[in-house]
# Entry
Amino acid sequence: MTEVPAGAHEVSMKPPQLGARESRPSLRAVAVGTTPDARARAFRAIYDAQVPFVWRNLRRLGVHECEADDRTQEVFVIAHRRFHEFEERGYGPRAWLFQIVLRVASGARRHRRRHPEEPDGNGVIDRETIDAPQADAVERREQLSRLDAAMDTIPLGRRAVLVLHEIEEMTAPEIAQVLAIPLNTVYSRLRVARLELEQALMSGSDP
# Structure
């Protein structure tokens, strides 16, 4: 399987509008043929189109940047193995892929709890040694790190709803379809997740 293109999938997140995405609609239907060759071409097209979607949602669901490429490959390995189960029901491949993303992200979080470590070798950066053109990039990475830490305080079920709504710009009915949960549950989880994120960011900004 082709490697994930480096740098092709990072997305910024800024509350309350947590990120941007390439285009609407999120859940565009795709045509999948019935012959082996047709399904192979369809999977390749899905892979090429959805790598950024998978990568950024793994990141926002708590997968560290240093392992995001490997976890993205894991999602597509699982998707390829189970592609015979994929049926186009009018919601496109993202609804199906996001279910796999959730499971892989959950597995990564469990692994990290069992094997805690500093993921990116983060250390104290002496800002005086950083050239001016690099300072903005360092500041942006630190802001994203604070946001990641705040997001990590939100339970995965509510976090998934927040990510789909704020980053992927899905409507509440779309999220209900993707996660197979009642519409009222979507609204409830989104409301609570927004409060949790706001509180976590405020707490993290305290001196």
